[in-house]
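Predict structure. Chain length: 759.
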Amino acid sequence: MRPTVVLKVVAATVAATLLVPVTATAATGPATSDALRSHGSAGQGGGHGSGRTWTTVPTLVARATLSADHLEEGPPSGALATPANGRQGPFDGQVVPGFSAMIDNGDGTFWAQPDNGFGAKGNSADFLLRLYRVTPHWETARGGAGEIEVGEHISLRDPDHRLDFPIVHEDTEERLLTGADLDIESVVRAKDGSFWIGEEFGPFLVHVDATGKVLSAPVPSPDGKSPANPYLAPGETPTVGSSRGFEALAGSRDGRYLYPVLEGALVGDDPRDRVVRQLDTRSGRYTDRTWTYRVDTDANVVGDAFMVGGDELLLVERDDFEGEQSVIKRVYRVDLSEQDRAGNLEKELVLDALKIANPHGIGAGDGYGTGDPFALPVQSFETVVQLRDGRLLIGNDNNYPGNDARVPGTPDDTEMAVVELRKERVATDDVTVVAHRGASGYRPEHTLAAYELAIQQCADYIEPDVVSTKDGVLVARHENEIGGTTDVSTRAEFADRRTTKVIDGASLTGWFTEDFTLAELRTLRAKERIPAVRPGNTAFDGLYPVPTLAEVLDLARHSVTCDGEQVGVYPETKHPTYFDSIGLSLEEPLVAALKDAGLDSKKAPVIIQSFETGNLRELDRMTKVDIAQLVSSSGAPYDLVAAGDPRTYADLVTRSGLREIARYADGVGLEKNVMIPRRADGTLGEPTAVIRDAHRAGLEVHGWTFRAENQFLAADFRSSADPAAHGDLGGEIQVFLDAGMDGFFTDQPDLGVAAVVNR
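Prediction complete.
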């Protein structure tokens, strides 16, 4: 297994600080077999084992904050701002609502640019557009104030009437610009000291001199207009979404080119596509070069961009959630000369801002996410700057007074944090930890939130169960019946979709994925499947959409395990015989999705699993990735039942049965009771010979499913009579590892990792 001992200890012991409650477990025992070949990360080759490896650990080295309630000189602002968190305008001065963009001056100071104020044209006419010179007095490992000092400012203005549309201060001499005139979001400094500013109402690129005076007419986007564009004609359809303009803007090192990036998708485009353009500053015109950056999921936005040299860009990708609801707050690196199979920019993870090592406790006690690890779980993560020493500066727009990611009910402060990408040598081991439906013990299963949390908790693989939509798109759901895992039962428009079907010989009533198009399914939101057992997960009900398999594959291949390997994917085909019977075969689109993601190879960290046998034989002929036969402690594979074949799961795990499995599979996924049955009193009995026999057949053995709640544990590892309380999951896992199990599926990856580390 690839996850590191060092980082797994951190994940298991401090997760309560940042993410979820953790019960520590400990166990000891021998190393396990590694019969199935190990998977290496892209670019590193395959192979790993017990030993040591190098990995990059993003580490917080400095932080400074500015009070959310800080005011600068000027007329009152926020008279029409939406009241929130106990604050209501007008405020006696100019609010500083966080920073959407920053420029490193190289002398310890920065130019920091807020956006248009309060989020819309209609409520920001009293907010003056400025850039502030700020000086962070850093808190570091050696101490420090941890405060941001605000100094002089540059006021944006248009005294020469370069803007030919009406502005708030139209008839004044200075013509100061406000948040009702432009929605400024990004900034690049030119060689001559002037500034190029990306904004969203147009969207436009606006060129101002070093004093903030507009130098020329705004350069419109060649991709069209937003609903707030002042030139939008009556009846004209906007092609850029509202507030989805140039949130991000980067500049080439020589100053020749600008690279504006649309925050959201163009109307009518694939909802995951974001357009990157190139503007020649000499001519003030766009070139014909364009690129597509693909976000992890539809609703994610591009929050900032920074050129790090050559054709390489850093891009902030984030969701709109905050606090513990956050899923994606990341910095990716792209090279404009490199594209994937689909023609999109190939992206590489540089920083997950939800998991930054904080060994010195910088900022500790300032609210959610300020422990070790440190997180920037704000809604608007909108700043990334590579400093001259190579470290990264990240920061936020706090949407004053609305955001309260750190302390609920209290407006978020403005933050600046410096992150060092440290190379560390860490220990590894050979046990594979699979996040069962993601970190489903802490988030609703089969959501990107559950998968991302599992990655943060050092899982090797994330496991999506796959079913099909009506239009043949594979999505991640435990079953095709979704009445218990989505809010479909509350949606009046889908009431007539409720029906009864026979699935694998059993009659089920509910709503089924194959009766919904992907577009319809994406309007639903996930909910906790077993709320009585996991009531804490219900806090996340209604937040997250049903992810496609393509999204899960992309998240995994753009993520890194705790010891620097590419995160693996362990998809399970659900009810393949049934889906074949209705003309929605799972195998072909699954292999196509792997190919599209560049994951259809022997080195790819992918294992396909199924409870049926025929489709695995078929997949073994279709793809080069590993195959695992799932085995239950009762019953038989449904494809064999449907064919009149009398073999059961018990027959599959005989010596001859295992040798037959080895003809098409690389491993077996065994229910716990197949490996170690329980006695009559519910305690663990003696191990069977199945693990030994599987190893002799050349098969890796992964066990399922290890869950922390008492009702799922053997009686000798329960903590009480409360079925939902946590027992000694680590102790139970240890017994199975001692019996030779090579890896396991768990709903609580952090506890599973701790069990491996502490054995």
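Summary: The first helix runs from residue 5 to 18.
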